[in-house]
Write a structure and sequence with these properties.
The chain is an alpha+beta fold. Among the domains are: about 120 residues, Cathepsin D, subunit A, domain 1, CATH 2.40.70; about 45 residues, no CATH class; about 160 residues, Nucleotidyltransferase, domain 5. The chain has 11 helices and 24 strands. The strands form 6 sheets. It has a 6-stranded mixed sheet, covered by helices on one side.
């Protein structure tokens, strides 16, 4: 495997290592390098255990070729990243390059045996013979730019892999450089950039109506029974108490929101401090009104509903419970507004671990709610009729279904199944296990059969036949006389509910085929013979 780059490197020290200085060592059995950039070719080998001069051991799994000068090439050089110097084994150098060494007091000449030419020199520095490789210190700047270019090229070759991915790859393939603080890549940002993660909100209100979350849901494809297409959800941040206001158009939002602010000021003797919503036009139009009231208006960023996550999660909670009640009661989809209203009535009275196992109703009204009045949504209910315009022989009750409670009235919202009217009444008797809108399912039909059935066979279940053939009665069991007693066979009577159609036969005179003219058929021997 050939290294993809030809590096021109200097003799700078990195992390205490001098990458481009090679020491002649007569005691080394192998040639070792800690600079992978100096390899011109390499290959993976079976890990070799190398004993270091300090007594430690290390494994080398890569061996390759290093070209120190245009005429001097080192073969079978082991790559060990943790090694601090580059060693040239004299024994390996002589055997692989077919040369000999001439030592003087200042220099060592490496001479080829055949041509007697000097292919390399080692200078005596500090008592060691050193072979210098690479350019001088003057080329530092050009060397660094080459390394950066190599990182960029590999980053593009690997499909713009991430920085963490490049770090992992560089550990498995040391020839691939890795730069911690790599320059930004435009292609990566254009292709991969996603939204930043959302941290948990540190804002927590200390009293009711310090912060109010609002959002508008709709329009729904099916208008409600009363013509509503939207509903406005308001959630108090402190208590999580929820209000819903049903709207026919978006234009009604401002009017109902002003009414709600007046309701808070009058009923709870406090003022709304802050309002949080999205950038809907129905909320932006209220900026001047909120400023006149001294109410702060927090708006989310565009396409960032997570910043108004309290009311968004409340929507999810409301719709989850509403679907459950709808599937249970089978009420028509046009009654979705009553379903949502009843769900909010229930949620406000259920304790929550988020509120330290208190209910939103308790935190707002400072008293525990009563749930004894709750009934199953969509169940059968009979409401007492009014005495006015009622004669002695008129009905005393109306058959209805229960659709929830009406705020401000101690009565239930009912839907008359006969007149299709909505009304409120307190004189109601509930049947919470009966749901009038549940579709009636027909029992499965068993086709008639004339095959005899052995009733004494334990592998045959005759209960389906008994259920749909009442006239069929089992005879009382008789004690068996012997083991070989015959089995009694019973037949289920055949029901002639469907008469078989008669098969129509043609009155046309049939003629035998022409190709049979040469044959005599229906002979006494019941065979056909060829007449020739």
């Amino acid at each position: 495997m050939t290294h993809p780059f030809a590096f021109n490197c200097d003799s700078n020290k990195t992390n205490g290592k001098n990458f481009f200085v090679w020491l002649l060592d007569t005691g080394a059995t192998d040639q070792i390098s800690s600079n992978f950039q100096s390899f011109t070719s390499f290959q993976s080998i079976k890990p070799v255990l190398v004993s270091l001069p300090d007594g430690n051991t290390n494994f080398a799994s890569i061996s390759g070729t290093v070209q120190l000068t245009p005429t001097l090439v080192l073969h079978n050089v082991l790559y060990i990243l943790d090694f601090s110097v580059n060693l040239v084994s004299v024994a390996k150098l002589i055997s692989t390059n077919n040369c000999y060494l001439q030592f003087t007091d200042r220099v060592c000449h490496i001479v080829q045996n055949t041509s007697k030419k000097t292919i390399g020199t080692a200078s005596l520095v500090g008592g060691l013979y050193v072979i210098a490789a690479g350019p001088s210190l003057a080329n530092n700047h050009s060397c660094n730019s080459v390394l950066n270019d190599c990182f960029d090229v590999w980053h593009m070759r690997l499909g713009h892999v991430s920085s963490s991915g490049m770090s992992i790859i560089s550990k498995q393939f040391p020839f691939i450089p890795c730069i911690k603080n790599a320059p930004p890549c435009d292609a990566c940002h254009y292709a991969k950039q996603k939204k930043l993660p959302f941290s948990h909100s540190s804002i927590k209100s200390s009293a009711p109506f310090d912060l109010l979350h609002i959002d508008l849901r709709g329009p729904y494809s099916t208008p409600s029974f009363l013509g509503h297409k939207y509903f406005l959800t308001l959630v108090d941040d402190f208590s999580r108490f929820t209000w819903v206001i049903f709207l026919k158009t978006k234009d009604e939002t401002q009017k109902h929101l002003k009414h709600f602010i007046a309701y808070v000021e009058n009923q709870f003797h406090t003022t709304l401090k802050c309002l949080r919503s999205d950038n809907g036009s129905e909320f932006i139009a209220m900026t001047s009104f909120l400023l006149s009231k001294g109410i702060l208006h927090h708006k989310t960023c565009v396409e960032t509903p997570q910043q108004n996550g309290v009311v968004e999660r409340k929507h999810q909670h409301i719709l989850n419970v509403a679907r459950s009640l709808s599937f249970q009661s089978h009420v028509p989809i046009t009654m979705w507004n009553f379903t949502v209203q009843h769900v909010v009535h229930i949620i406000n009275r259920i304790p929550s671990h988020l509120l330290k196992f208190k209910s939103p109703f308790e935190l707002v009204h400072r008293t525990r709610p009563s749930i004894i009045h709750l009934k199953v949504f969509g169940c059968l209910a009979y409401a007492t009729t009014l005495q006015a315009h009622r004669t002695k022989f008129n009905h005393r009750a109306r058959k209805t279904i229960f659709l929830g409670f009406k705020e401000g009235t101690k009565g239930s919202i009912l839907y008359d199944l006969n007149s299709n009217e909505l009304f409120v009444s307190r004189n109601v008797i509930f049947y919470e296990n009966h749901f009038p809108f549940t579709p009636v399912t027909k029992p499965p039909t068993i086709p008639p059969t004339s095959y005899p059935i052995d009733l004494d066979d334990p592998l045959i279940d005759v209960s389906p036949y008994l259920a749909f053939a009442p006239e069929f009665q089992l005879a009382p069991a008789r004690p068996s006389q012997s083991v070989s007693a015959p089995t009694v066979q019973h037949e289920i009577p055949v029901v002639d509910s469907i008469s078989e159609p008669t098969i129509r036969k043609s009155t046309r005179t049939s003629q035998p085929p022409g190709y049979l003219a040469d044959y005599h058929c229906n002979l006494p021997s019941k065979s056909c013979s060829n007449v020739s």
